[in-house]
Amino acid sequence: MLMPSTQQEKLKFYKRFGLVEQLQVVASTAVVVAMVTILTIYTVLGRELTYLLFVTVVVVGVFGFLSVFFTVRYGQKIEEQRRDMLAINTISEAISNSVRANVILMNALKTVTNLMEADHGWIYLHEVNKLRLAYKEGTEIDFIHVLEKSGHETRDWKKEMVLWDRLKGNSPTIPTRLKEMGIRVWISEPLETSDGFAGVLILASKDIKRFDEKKMNLLSVFVSQINVALDNAQLFEKLNVSKQLYADLFEHSPDMYHIIDKDGKIVSCNQTEIDNLGYTKDELIGADIRILYPPDEHQKLEKKLDRIFNKGENLNGIEERIQRKDGTPVDVSVNTSLMYKGGKPVKVRVVMRNITETKMMREKLLQVQRIDSLGSLAGGIAHDFNNILLAILNAASIMKRKMEPKNQWYDYVELIESSSRRGGALTQQLLTFARQKNINYHPVDVNDVIRDTIRLMERSLDKSIKLRSGFTEDPTVIEGDERQLQQVLMNLILNARDAIPQGGTIKLSTKVEYLNQERIFTPHGSEGHYILLRVEDNGSGMDNETMEKIFEPFFTTKDTGKGTGLGLSVVYGIVNKHKGFIIVDSQPGVGTIFSIYLPQVHNENKKSVKGKWKNEKVTGGTENIIVIEDDILVSRMIRDMLTNLGYSVKLCIDGEEGLRELRNHDNPYELLVLDLNMPHISGRDVLLDLRKFNRSIPVIISTGYGEHVLDEQEIRGEIQAYIKKPYDEIEFGSLVRRVLDKHKQPTLQ
Questions:
Q1: Which one of 344, 394, 420, 593 counts the least CB within 10 Å of its CB?
Q2: Do the domain assignments include residue 3?
Q3: Domain check: are 580 and 602 in the same one?
Q4: 679 and 627 fall within a common domain
């Protein structure tokens, strides 16, 4: 039999009391019943109820009634508080089971919807000034989307709690879609974190009285807990991101990184070390650190570990050589930092930076510096050697002019002269090597340069290597510098020599070809005839990968110490300066062909450089010439050459004497021959001092250095001519005559 609803409510209410409240109700009820029983007995028995007894019974009854009344009344409030605390505890448990924001919000929505006895619930998250539906409970619709379509404003939801009650008339009519769901009221509460507005929680109910003031306050408490949980979740997420960034930094640092314990075991390592050394992490972690070092480094390693763990020292910037899994050496710079436990070192962090390429570049730089030092030395040697050659060459030239070709000594004198010229060619090579000679562009016969180079190189090559040549009969004149071209040929011949260590053939040949624009592989080239200069060998050849790098500075396939990697890059640079281009064709085991294309020029009056003075008749004169030259032999030879041509000559052995003589107006001179490299006062200073008091006398610079010495504009603008040592009587005499004649010509006003 079912109990009446009122009785059920009373029983339900009574059961909500705690044990203490129930005992209080029972005790109070018993007092009231006892009072009524006493009064009934006295009445039935007809006994007189005394005043004192009556008052006592009444007081006890009143107190019993009051006890029951207040117990029931405040018991309800205590029960409500207990239920609220239970609800708060429930939401706390729901959101504290995870530190992931998505799990927190999902559990929170489900729990809050249940505790608030709502029919539907939604959580929207704030993203780029928009509210995105993230979670929903008890429905599939997008609540805000439905509201906005019907004209409801949601802007205030970001600031405060909003309760919509259609009976209060504070909002438009309920949208049709919500009516169909039976929704009569809804409430929203903003979600906030330390970063600001995070979203909104919305609850909806079919019961218009569902969200009273008490429940609204309870919802605020729930949301506050959710906000705290969200803050913690964001902090946890930031911590995870930070950990991940640190892990990425550790794993993918440009440096190799590992940790070693006191037993020399590798405890951990990063991915960079794995990638650099070719191991897997399983192979390295737990392995002995000696696995990374070649056997001859183990003893040094043990001493360093002893210094680290037993003496507490850290290593900073120590260079070591370790090895990859395949045994390839790797140069590294090492830094360490100790890890302590209980005040004692237990592990050491080791950071290794791969400096293999840096070390190679350092060695290359030292090599270049040595080359530069040799170049400076070579320039000085070339200058002194040119002075010696000048004396020998001109002594031979004077003797030769005094002899008849039938003289028995004529051939020997001619041999001395030709040998001196060959010595001069060698000094030109030294000056080119020393970078002390500018490119002097003029018509050059490529065939002549090849012949000279072959004669020069034949004596320096092994007898097992044969130099062959094949020349076109067409004109092979280009605009260039024969010394630079000779360097190109020498570098290519030496490169070919290294490719045939067991012997073979090197062939140099020329050919004239017409190239259209499609066949020209240089930006400054134009369609026309080109001289094709080929250098080919039958040596070891190259693969495609090597051919792509051969013109790069410092690239070499030779063993350490056997090549600078500059030879072919110099070739490439010189060919480019001559407005040409170079093509390489090579096959491993077959050989290599370097094809150099240089623009052909037409020069009807072309003469061989070395013989352009050969048949020229020198005209002398009677002018007064002063020579400032510190080398006694050279100065005497210049004097003899000039006096043989009829000139009056005054020799000065240094700049001070020369300036004193030039200031003496009693001896007017018509030409100065000046050496630049002199002690005390250099030729440059002599020239500049001279122009302060005499700007009319023409000056010829005679030097063993290259034309680069004239790069200073103040020097070049104060001289009339330049001549490179060594030179012979014909070349020098012709230049002197031209300078004097030009100086005597009247200047046009």
A1: 344
A2: no
A3: yes
A4: yes
